[in-house]
Structures are given as structure tokens and as C-alpha cells.
Amino acid sequence: MANVSVYNMEGNEVGTMELNDAVFGAKINEHLVHLAVVRQLANKRQGTQKAKTRSEVRGGGRKPWRQKGTGHARQGSIRAPQWTGGGVVFAPVPRDYEVKMNKKERRAALRSVLTSKVQDNKLVVVDELKLDAIKTKEMKKVLENLKAEKALVVMAQDDQNVIMSARNLAGVETATTNTINVYDVLKHSTLVLTKDAVASIEEVYA
User: Fold this and answer.
1) From CA 139, how far away is CA 144, in angstroms rounded?
2) Are residues 41 and 61 in the same domain?
3) Side-chain half-sphere of 199: how many Cα atoms within 13 Å?
4) Are the C-beta atoms of 142 and 163 separated by less than 8 Å?
5) Structural domain boundaries, residue 133
6) Which of 49, 86, 102, 162 has its CA 20 to 30 A from that of 78?
7) How far is residue 57's CA from residue 89's CA, in Å, rounded to a whole number?
């Protein structure tokens, strides 16, 4: 099992912690990580865009002029795509962009990115993360102490003081163990976990 240092909010090492190899020492599967990211970004798309084809645009029920003899190019309708106000050639229509992925694959992908953070020394474990009030300055100081300014901070449970304090920090996001995902872990250079969050993740994903 991998051993990592545990820090307090002042950035001082207060102990060590063994990580479960089933979660933080798993085999890295880049293909599943790629699929997980594609799935998450695709599922964010609303798919509500719509434009009208020439069959849906109002008007244009007759030929604007006769076929031959006018000197103009032949035209069948003033709602053809080349006309102003005409229909769109391959118009987008509402659709579902959902990409499906098996639960086992999603879990394996998350284990892969967690393992990569450990291997790259980009995983920071803090004994606890508690703020007495909503103070962005205090949260920024804590992250500077942990040398994790652009980080994803993961807690075992919602803590509104921490969440609201981190909200205005550039490059910093917060999450709980039940909302952690592959894309957010990859997007941030450092992953900050509380000891409770580590235990919760190991319980679910081991």
C-alpha cells in the first residue's frame, strides 16, 4: 500500500496514511479514462438546437418565375437554401447526445485517475477542513499552505463554509465523494482530500 503524508490546514505534516491499492494503486486504463471524459462532456450537451429546413420555412409555394426565357437561373422556390430567408440545408434538430458507459467501467476510470494523481505526487491529504465562517481569504491561505492553489477539494460531506469560501477562487472547485468524477479530477492539477473523504472513497470503490 502507498503511504502518503497527512497535513493540517497550516501545511504542517501531522502523520501518514496508508492508501488502499485497490483504489489508489490500480492499473491505469487510459482508454476507459478517455471514454469517461467523452461521456461526461457529451451528457452535458442540451441538444435543444433547432433550425428549419426548406420544407418547414413559411412561404415559397410557387416558382418565383417561369423556368425558361427570363435570363435568370432556374428557381423552384424562394425558400430554397440559397435565398435570403430560405431553409437551412442540413438543419440541426433536437437530439439526445447521451453516451452510455457501464458502471464497472466508470469506477475503473475513476480509480485510474486517482492512481495517476498518487503517482504524480499530486494528491494531498488533509486531516480536516473546517472554517468558522465564509472567508475566501482563509480558504486561499489554506490552499497556499498545502501548495495546492489550483485544486479540486473533495470532502466526505457538504460543508457550506468551505464550499462558499472556495467559490470565488480561480481554478478551485469543491466536491463531495458522491459527486467526484473523472473529468473534474483530470481538470485540476492537484487533488485535495480530507481523511474522511479518503475513507469514504475507499469504502465505495475498493
Assistant:
1) 9
2) no
3) 9
4) no
5) 2-45+100-205
6) 49
7) 12
